[in-house]
Amino acid sequence: MSLPRAEFLSASDGVKLAYYNFIHGNPSSILLFLHGGGAYSGGGYAVFASNLSNNYNTGVVLMDIRGHGNSGGERGHSPSKEQCWDDIGKMARELKSKYANILFFIGGHSSGGGMVLNYASWDTDSPADGYIFISPQLGYKSGIQKQTDREKFTKVNLPAFIINGISGGKLLGSFKAVRFNYPREVLAANPLFITSITVNMANAMTPYDPPGEFRRINRPYGLFIGKNDELFEPSKVLDYFNLSADSIKKRSVKRIIMGANHLSILLNCEKAVAEMITGLLRA
Fold first, then answer.
1. Which structural domains are found in the chain, ordered by start?
2. pLDDT for 50 beyond 70
3. Cα–Cα distance between 222 and 128 in angstroms, integer?
4. Which pLDDT score is estimated for 168?
């Protein structure tokens, strides 16, 4: 399925952020959704957005992270991790101003989910009424990875991150430190995919304190993972749900999607996402 025509919003530093509107008629809720690292909104996300919009009356806006897809900025790079989070906030507030009287959610898949988790901790006054995490990449500190499969897909230059951390973020921020081993056929079918991201971009996408960030979530959320996910252990991902405050968990949802892997979950998780949103609409 192809994307709608790209529209653009200027980030706080002037970079043009591409987004794709799947909002029709009078939706009962809105979801701003981010793709994974190296990918873009055209990499399988249109079906997810279209299904939610057409079948469950949840309008979806897909956003290309800066340096990805049709968004501006150096490929795979950000001037800082905070700039990426500010981009989310800018887009979120733009949407909330247009749809002020309905529930508004921010979500992401894979590394996009990790970026949304970071954003949720950073922007405690977020306009979001809730968050959606689909197969979220929670980072090397999380313990959720299936080591063998992760190493097949990504190659990480750890010394670059160590030097960046020791320098307080002053050194190697623009160094391409994470490389994605997308199959040739995937790259041929998706020419806007990129094969590497920098330290700054990876830091924007990688939760810096996964347990603490789940404890600090101050909005209800949905946490979804495929039973057959090749990269992450489903039970370990869902364990993070238990860290959130009881008041948040009561309004949140965790679920393993049967038969789904890391990418195919985008084709069959919309019902579970819609049920979580519907639960909040009825509350």
1. 7-146+200-282 (3.40.50.1820)
2. yes
3. 13
4. 94
